[in-house]
Amino acid sequence: MREYRSRKRNDDTDERRDLREKILDFVTGNQKKVMILAGIFGAIFTFSLGMLTVHMLNRATISADIEQQQVAEVETTGEIIKITSEEGLTIASEDNSGKDQLELQETGSAGAAESIASAGTKENGKSTSADGVKAEAKTVAPDKSQGASSKSESKSSSKKQSSSGAAASSSGSGTASSAASTASSGNSADMNGFDLSTAKLDKASDGSQVKKEETFLVLNDVSETKASQDVIGEAPTGEKSAAPDETAATETATSKETSPGSGESTVQLPFDKKKLTVLVYMIGSSLESKSNLAANSIVTMLTGNVDTEKVNVIIETGGTKKFHNISTADHKFDESKIQRWLVDGTKLRYLGDAGNSEGNSMTSGETLESFLKYAKKNFPAGRYEAVLWGQAGGPVNGFGYDEINSSTGQLSVSSISNALSNAEMDLDLLLFDARLMGAMESGYALASHVDYMIASEDNEYSIGLNYTNWFNRISHDPSMSAIDQGRIILDDFIKGNKGKGDGMSNVVGAYSVIDLKALKRNTSDKLKNLAELLKAAEKTEDGRDHLRQAGKEAYEFAEAYSYDLVDICSFLSAIEENYKGEGKDGIDYGEIRAAAKSLKASVEKAVEVCRYVTPEDDGGVSGLTIYFPQHDTDSEKKKNMVTKYEDLSFSTSYQQLIKQYAH
């Protein structure tokens, strides 16, 4: 056996020697070819190694970026949704291409619509509403024509159809946005590097729920949540809160002005003076408690990555029974407190509380005033801007609904103006992230303390405004004009809500940037003149008929709720059309037509930017509404509205015309 193994080893050695000699002969005879092949293989190896190195560096950079950004999450119900490092800062939302789409949410702050306490069945086929009506945001097939649930009444040929009415609807504010909360139709958008089309979910490997709470990321789709929403606008009358203790309210108001609260704030105050401070007054209401829309709006603000060295963004939250937590906040939201926050890049820093929620309504002018004084003292700036986020019932009913203090009504535009006056604060820009506040009456009441107003004539559809691009831009350029800011905000809103109107195929929205100083200065005398002429004409049979017909032909918003808000320029055009000829009964119709035309020209000049697209076209509206009672509005509701209207800070002559006409 030993001899066999030795012989085999010798044979193997001979074979190896022969192989080496053959290889050597081949290399010697083909030296040039071998060198070429060696060069090719060497180049391939070097390239592969370089690509691997670049890939590893990119992954490290992405991981560092994610750690730095700390993308915010909003807590709702269900499972945890996360962004993986391979996907970078992509949205954490299912790829729902071909799946259900979110039914349009017609919002009142994108707010919810109101309970129509006194509205009975309307004539001529208009919608009927009643107390206690609720609307549920549900998913529907993409080819279904659903959205705001009521249709506009077909009027005369000169009146355009409105897509704004909805007998019942759920909310969506302000909040998350075109970039931050796109409907789950699989559409993609590109805002600050976020690609909606590549969004994925990261679930537990065993398929189990990670925890009992679902976490919505910065750019998550609200359609994941079924949101049952009370239909609200006017404060509900069915659920009354106890009258606030006056002594406690006084003590709280005093403490609010002297300190930021008893919380655990780590922020050193006051800040050094900046170029710009933006105040966000957020009345969460059921928009937040049922649909987490306020939290989603805050998340879009965080996505803007505000540079606190240049800009202050301060938020006050309250008025809701449930506020959903945000992952990058350094403190939990407490519904029992009115809380204040600082937007610091992608983080939300707690500043303290401003008193207990119960007994301190967010729709109180004193609460708003306290916030303004606090911000001015602790976050001084060369310019101030403000956002009012919440539900709204138009200029007559007012802004906001406090879900905890439900008996306190809404915040009137006069109260907003008084709060600014008492705080000695003037605003370059005031933005209503709410529906129906884009009105002549709002502009007149606020003109003394606000230069530019951004507001909607219409209901605010889908999930409202997007703050990401706006906050990012002012963070880079705090000196940007209010008009330029307005263009960014409105263009993003229209872009983000395209295709979310009635029938799921129409652009919806009616937002405008209005120069309030020019509005009041250039229209006050002209409105007074026209109102006096119409008062005289209204006393005659023909004159009254012409005025009523003009009101019917004007472009009306939210008509299902009987707010009786008509676009002022379409109303003035209808007046010109109806008061034809020389006139009757001693009334000069030509003078009325000239007055209407002159007023319309001044209104149009005051509207700097207007973004509105109807189902048929993009014309017919001016950017501002005015109250005018419709003939088919429930008489009791009309009476209540006219009574409220007399208390507004508006043109006395026009208020007298309305009172005369309504009676």
Could you please describe the fold and organization of this structure?
The chain has 663 residues and is α+β, with helices and mostly antiparallel strands. It has a domain at 2-69. The protein is 37% helix and 16% strand. The chain is built from 17 helices and 22 strands. The strands form seven sheets. A nine-stranded mixed beta sheet has the order 13-12-11-10-14-15-16-18-21, with helices on both faces. α8 runs parallel beside α9 (440-446), α10 runs antiparallel to α11 and α16 (635-645) packs antiparallel against α17. It is elongated, with a radius of gyration of 31 Å. The model is unreliable at 1-9, 62-69 and 76-262 (pLDDT under 50).
Task: List the keywords.
single chain, alpha+beta, 17 helices
How many individual helices? 17
Largest sheet: 9 strands, mixed
Name the poorly predicted regions.
Answer: 1-9, 62-69, 76-262
As a whole number of angstroms, the C-alpha radius of gyration is 31 Å
Q: Which percent range describes the beta-strand content?
A: 15-25%
Give the strand tally.
22
Head-to-tail CA distance between termini: 127 Å
DSSP helix fraction: 25-40%
Give the SSE map.
Blueprint: H1 2-29, H2 31-69, E1 73-75, E2 101-102, E3 106-107, E4 134-137, E5 139-140, E6 190-191, E7 194-195, E8 215-217, E9 227-230, H3 246-258, E10 274-283, H4 285-289, H5 293-303, E11 311-318, E12 337-344, E13 347-356, H6 365-378, E14 381-389, H7 394-397, H8 413-422, E15 427-433, H9 440-446, E16 450-456, E17 460-461, H10 468-476, H11 482-497, E18 510-515, H12 516-538, H13 541-553, E19 556-557, E20 565-567, H14 568-578, H15 589-606, E21 607-612, E22 625-627, H16 635-645, H17 652-662
Parallel strand pairs: 10-11, 10-14, 14-15, 15-16
Antiparallel strand pairs: 1-8, 2-5, 3-17, 4-9, 6-7, 11-12, 12-13, 16-18, 18-21, 19-20, 20-22
